[in-house]
Design a protein that fits this description.
Length: 517
Amino acid sequence: MKMLVVDDEREIRDYIAGMPEWADIRCSVAAVAANGAEALALARDIRPDILLTDIRMPVMDGIALAEAIRKEQPELPIVFLSAYNEFEYARQAIRLGAVDFITKPFVAADLVWAVKQVQQQLMTEWKHQEAFFVLFGGPADRDEEKLAWLRDRNQPDEPFILLYGELDTVAGAAGERSPFRERAVLAAVMPALERSPVPYWTQGTNAGLYVLLRGSGIDPASLQEEALALAKQMVELGGAASELSLSVGIGRAEPSLLRLPDALRQIAECMEYRMLIGKRSVIAYDAIRSIRSEKDRQLLLSTNRLEELLRIGDRDGIADALREAYRTMLTVGAGKPDIQHFCINLVEKAEYVMEEFGLSIDPKDKLRIREKLLSSVILTDMMRDIEQLLQGCAARIGTLVEQAPKRLVAETKAIIGQAYEDELTLRMVAERLSVNYSYLSRVIKKETGKNFSDLLWLTRIEAAKARLLSEDLKAYEVAYAVGFKNYAHFSLLFKKVVGMSPSAYKLHASAQRDGGK
């Protein structure tokens, strides 16, 4: 390999150029330069295999050099050297496709290791196709440009399967999201890639590695088998590496490279589903497809049920309902955004119910629980956190609901939640609670600001929202199913509460689901 070394300090240039270690890995320093302008001219002449460049230099710095040289030699590996360990440089290095970012002072082994990685990639015909992923991951209106890119490189538009190996780390955790963490993933899974009989392209991310298996001349079934075998090897090799836990998502077999945007969305769903099954998992997109309307309906029903239990301070019921919600999520294939939305919605419900009872939650605790839920990647962790919150709220509410009038209101709402589908009147509820119905009416109005009928209708509307998400029910069928006797009254009340008609709500929910696929 021919190297071009660029640094404005002569001592460093001479030191790197004279390192005896280069001979051991069959590399040579073809030229040295004192600034980016000199290096750019030399690069056009010698066409180096790798560029080692300082960042802060006179005339033209390393970032400007990389930007200029990328236009002429887009696949040239670049290693940045800098005495300034600042995030801004790292960010720009990532954008320019740097293979490493080494801070001064450095030792010879740092440079040799970085160059050996590039060398091994070339020797094993590893192709780090950043340009391909950037272009083909873009919108369909660039399809002609994509096909021209393939023709210019004598590459066919071929079937493929996309894999993605990602570190099982908590998003944003200190020390876990290094800009060059992909190196650890690549080093761990490289033996599996070298043994793969299927040609591939790869692209790194902050926390993982895409592997695109190219399927020309391979039948889809065999390509899928190879993808699954490779994914399992990647997980095993990642697990064998020190302190490295890796999960792999597998997209569907696609007939054309133009389908890369769809494959990327499939991978995103796979990695979201990882929180349901834990670390070091292989997640195939075909295995997690489910009816999204059923998922949405079930999650909404679970939320409403937990809210009812919270109002009466039923701690045992909350624990049982959360376990049932966990099983529901596994059954319907809820993804990470669905589960986070479910948990955050429960937090908001808990805060709302607490306010109804005149109880407060520390603002710091409100922020803390949201941060934990949004940073968790494993479902069991999220369910543990949400159960702790709900149990704490239920304990405080339970103390109050034992006392009238809050107890009467809570029990009234519980009865409504259980029997809203039936013919239900204030007098019937009062008889069940053994209180005068006029007194109960006054208590409800004083404590909630609403009449009994308002509470009943609102409960029915919430139930109707859940049922409308089921595709096999029409709006008028839903109205009668939740207890309304007159569809016109239901439609008018639904629009007043929700802001749109039942039919419009159903279409809106369907459009949101389709847009998320």
